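Researcher: Structure for this, please.
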Amino acid sequence: MIRKLLSGAGAIGTALMTSTAAFAQEAAEAAAPVVDKGDTAWMMTSTVLVLLMILPGLALFYGGLTRTKNMLATMTQIGAAACLAMVIWVAYGYGLAFGPEGNAYISWGKWFLAGVTPDSLADTFSDDFKLPEYVFISFQMTFAAITVALVLGSVVERMKFAAVMIFAAVWLTIVYFPIAHMVWAVGGLFFEMGALDFAGGTVVHINAGVSALVAAIILGKRIGYGKDVMAPHSLTMTMIGTGMLWVGWFGFNAGSALEANGSAALAMINTFVATAAAGLTWMIAEKAAGHKASALGFCSGIIAGLVAVTPAAGNSGPMGAIVLGAVASVVCFLAVTILKPKLGYDDSLDAFGIHGVGGIVGALGTAVVYAPMFGGPGDGSTGIGAQLVTQAAAVGATIVWATIGTIIAMYVAKALTGLRVSEEVEREGLDLGEHGERAYNY
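Model: Predicted structure, token format:
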């Protein structure tokens, strides 16, 4: 009898242990972060939308703004620099920006994506959900690719293709990757400061715009600048590129929420209304200045609005985004039409005037539109003045870092290949001189 009782007690104990272990396993599985297929699908779509911004969006936008003899060279430089950025990103760029070890300025590890598998996960802004790491890597890779391509807008029609590629490799390594780490990586300098940059106002636009200005000054003006007519050869192409950039920008901004949620929805509507306000405002500014409202002005305003709302996409209410877009459009208009002629630099396609200036306005303006009193999503714990100081510190540091890094990258390229094409090639056009082909055979 005793033996039976002990046997029964043992069976009950075993059953209880099994039940407890099963319950613990189920609880652990329930608590573990999961990969949401909807979020993953949205982020894969956003990644492809950002690629659309580069090819064909930016290539068409910049290509249409150049003279016919340099159109193919401009588009080729954009495409090739973007491809180089993608290869460098998976080799070591991802490790420098988002590696497992690091400090306030840079990280390291995961060289050549070592240790990353289809089962590897990356954090989102929610504790309960994660993304496949390959998706996060790909998304951030497109940001690096478009940023270096944006810089080239100031140096088209006169910079050697070989110099462009060397510059791109060095610039990505010493400028883009550290800034991306400082802004978006946990432990990064600006991240820990509490600087707000939802989708890349500092990382992409101030970074690219300031670098474009420095590169243009070092390279020098185009032959005939200020004397010869250097009008865009195809504003139709530029208009098409503008539309593709706007469409792709939804991946850029709404995708930066890293989930298909309310934050992404806020970024989406802000990308609509800030851009619309900026496009209209630029044409009004043209009219107020005594000119006709132009297609080029409309396109310029659209890009200015997109740039300005980038850091504020998920950090502003729609009304604040409208005001931010309109203000940035006016400031960029003044930078392009007054500041640039007065200072005399040859920023060929106004990369600084729109991306640099628009990025600065957007980054500083985010401190204002983030406040709940202006309809922003902030909780009011940080006052506008304190947040503005933080934003200004991040902007100033980005300007200094980009300036120094661009000087180094340009002079490395100059030492290895020289920067400018010959006078003969510049007059003939870089399409033939650098690539041996013409856009139009007549």
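Researcher: Any notable elements?
Model: Confidence is low (pLDDT under 50) at residues 1-6. Residues 384-417 form the longest helix (34 residues).
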